[in-house]
Amino acid sequence: MDAGGTGRWAQALGFLGVILSLLFVGFEIKQSRDIAEAQVYAQRAELDVMIRAQYIPSDRIYDIQRRKAAGEKITDFELEKLLFAYGSSFIYWENNHFLYLQGLLGKEHWQASRQSMLQTFIEIPDFLAFWDGYSHEYRTSFRNEVDKVVQEANVKLENDARMEASKAL
After folding, report:
1. Greatest Cα pair distance in the chain
2. What is the pLDDT of residues 53-96, one digit of tens each?
3. Crossing angle, helix 107-123 and helix 140-168, to 10 degrees?
4. 153 burial class (0-12, 13-18, 19+ CB within 10 angstroms)?
5. Which pLDDT tens digit goes with each residue over 107-163?
6. Quick one: which of 79, 69, 144 has its CA closest to 114?
């Protein structure tokens, strides 16, 4: 091989090294930005939940939920408190979903959050009503995921109703 051929190979390898270095730097910048965005998102969710918790003691919410489920009349103000509390749950779940999509929350943890959401939809029908009224306030990817959970909850509730009906026969 002559000196010119060796020089071209060295130049090509050097060029390839520069390209790979730039790709690596780009990846590092994107990763740093994603982590910073996730931290801001998590802090926003934490702050929101903390503020809501200060305004609404959880024992008060459970009392309002219990009375509403028993068919007792609740005031408009109490209904607003319930909606405020329900919003905290959705903000928590949305934050977990965002972190999961960013690769910063494990699949097992996201699945546990998703299962918690499903159980809540099944046990507290008002959450379904809340979602119907406020889903537009959340990210599209989260809305799509919650809509799947709502479908699962509806299927479970329908199956449970059929089982109860068949027992009554």
Report:
1. 94
2. 665 666 778 888 888 888 899 998 888 888 888 888 898 899 88
3. 50
4. buried
5. 999 999 999 999 999 988 888 889 999 999 999 999 999 999 999 998 888 888 888
6. 144
Taking CA atoms, 53 is separated from 10, 66, 85, 91, 154, in Å, by 64, 19, 8, 13, 29
User: Is pTM, for the whole model, over 0.90?
Assistant: no
Structure tokens at 1: 């091989």
CA–CA gap between residue 58 and residue 50 (Å, rounded): 12
The pair of three-digit structure tokens given for residue 104, joined into one six-digit string: 């910063």
Q: Long-range contacts made by residues 99-102, C-beta under 8 angstroms, separation at least 24? A: 99/38, 99/41, 99/42, 101/141, 102/34, 102/35, 102/37, 102/38
Distance in angstroms (rounded) separating the CA atoms of residues 110 and 115: 9
- The helix/strand/coil state of 137 is helix
Residues 3-28 as b or e (16 or more Cβ within 10 Å = b): eeeeeeeeeeeeeeeeeeeeeeeeee
